[in-house]
Write the structure tokens for this entry.
Amino acid sequence: MALFPEYSGPKELALRVLLISGGVFILTSLVLLVAGTPPWPAFYHLFVGALGSWNKLAQVLMVWIPLTLCACGLLYSFRIGLWNIGVEGQVVAGAIACTAVLRFGVESGSPALMLMVAFASGILGGGVWAVLAGLLKTKGGVNEIFGGLGLNFVAQGITLWLIFGPWKRPGVGSMSGTELFQESLWLPTVLSGRLSPVGLVLTVLTLVAAAWVLNRTRLGLSLKGIGSNARAAYLHGLNPNTYFILAMGMAGGCAGLAGAFQVAGVYHRLIPVISSNYGYLALLVVMLANYRVWGSPWIAFFFACLNVGSIQLPIVLKLDSSLSGIIQGALVLTTLLVYGLRK
Amino acid sequence: MTDLDLTILLASIVAGAAPIVLAVLGETISEKGGVINLSLDGSILLSAMVAFAIAYQSESLFLGFAGGGLVGALMAATVGYFSVYVGLSQVAVGFVLTLTARDLAYFLGNPYARLYGPQAGLVPIPWLQDIPVLGPIFFDQSVPAYLSLFLIPVVWWYLYKTPMGLRLRAIGENPEAAYARGTNTRAIQFWYTVAGGLLVGLAGAAFSLCTKTGWGRPQGAEGTGWIALAIVIFGGWHPVKTALGAYLFAFLQIMGIHFQGWWPSVPAQVFQVAPFPLMIFTLILMNLAQKGSARSSSRASPWLRGLMRILSGSAPVGLGRSFRPE
């Protein structure tokens, strides 16, 4: 289900890159001019805000981790031809499952073991939430887009209920989330708490696993076969429904891992916006990577730079931080258009 | 929660559902022609923002609604152009657009947040508003609400009783056959998608100028577009049934507020997501209704049979597919 046609010569590629970057630059500048801001300072602050110092780079990597994990998951579900919009809810479900374990682990003597159990629980939580969407599709005939979206909103509702209800802070519940875990249950970090090596290693491992499964194994081939022609695959002896559930489970597991990382590595508590929209953003990442494994981490890195770079825009330039989303969207749209017109 | 006056409840359903009815009718029109406009959620927000900004600057409600409608039409034109003419995946384009339009609305709407602007108030219709029960429900409403009520039969009549409607449905069912009959499938798909988008844009304007007045982050209309997309399926791509779905959703939203009064310990946000699981549940029921086994087992009870008949409905066969006449 490749979105773009295959590689077509270095000259053509250079032209396309030029057209796309030019298009994005013009579109974004137009938006900035409409908002009454000169474009250059905005671009400058975006860049400096993302890569201006080692600390900023560490911050970018902390966004890159969950974004890439979600993208890894989506690679599985896209390969079989499913639009897993429910990835957002799967991140949330993973975060809830991870928080549940860590809340009970306060008294435990071995924080390392607790964290491992919490991550496993996060993967399981995300996987279960995704399998639910998969079952809705295979058993209930509910399109995965609407089943997934519905489950996203349900997961969001459960999070809010937990934060204001059973898991509320002593006293009164608030939008700032549940109580912080004790520090022994935080994922270990370097650079005075700015970067989590465990998260980086887990992400790289997940990427390598995705590349291996999708490109080198029989399972990967089956997913691709069903994705390109479910009927032919069925006649070949593959049961599409089984593989739909399997692919969703793997996708949800990766998303759940991202959710667990958000809880244990970034916020150290459950907050209402725990997924930070990384699931939806990862859909754009994988589309832009043309559904390929090795394109995804680089695009995820670029998107993470935009997200981190835009954080200081409201303070420095009195602009809304959603500028990053506009650039990301314009990038995908222009790419779609350029590849669509020049095939 | 003391007592629930039925007339007031029904009147507030008609008022609250107005934008959703406009959006589902718009989406029904474009999906009848075979194009899914997945950008609904972002379109509604962006047009709500633009409508509010224009109305605020010009102090003209009419210009506000016109601006909102134009934005919705432009968004739909983008989906239509990319999918019908360039042949890209409708879902992919629509999804990217919905995210981008949302961010664009927040970004450009920043200076207009939390301002007090013009609002479309109630315009009671003389004589008719004095009819007991019906008067307050149908004839003491705002202009967008009248428009939504008026458009339900119009869209139904257009789609099912006119040659133009027949031609549109033919393209949605089988673009190849329609093309072979000499219809310009691309132009028709494109322009009906734009027309549907116009209604979606008016829905956005109805939010920021009438139902949930003002602009902010969040505005309050977030998620409605997705709900509208689900309602179109729920209504089996039939304008009257989708409109009823919109009223059902508005009813659930209003009841959510009352439920909160009954159980104050449960946070408000939980009731706001209640319609979503219900939507999934009805989608499952719809699927069951189309299965032969469920149909035969429901034969015993007239109640079930009626329910099955209401829930049955099928997607236009050519929905979501890009047809390239070669």
Remarks:
- The first helix of chain B runs from residue 6 to 32.
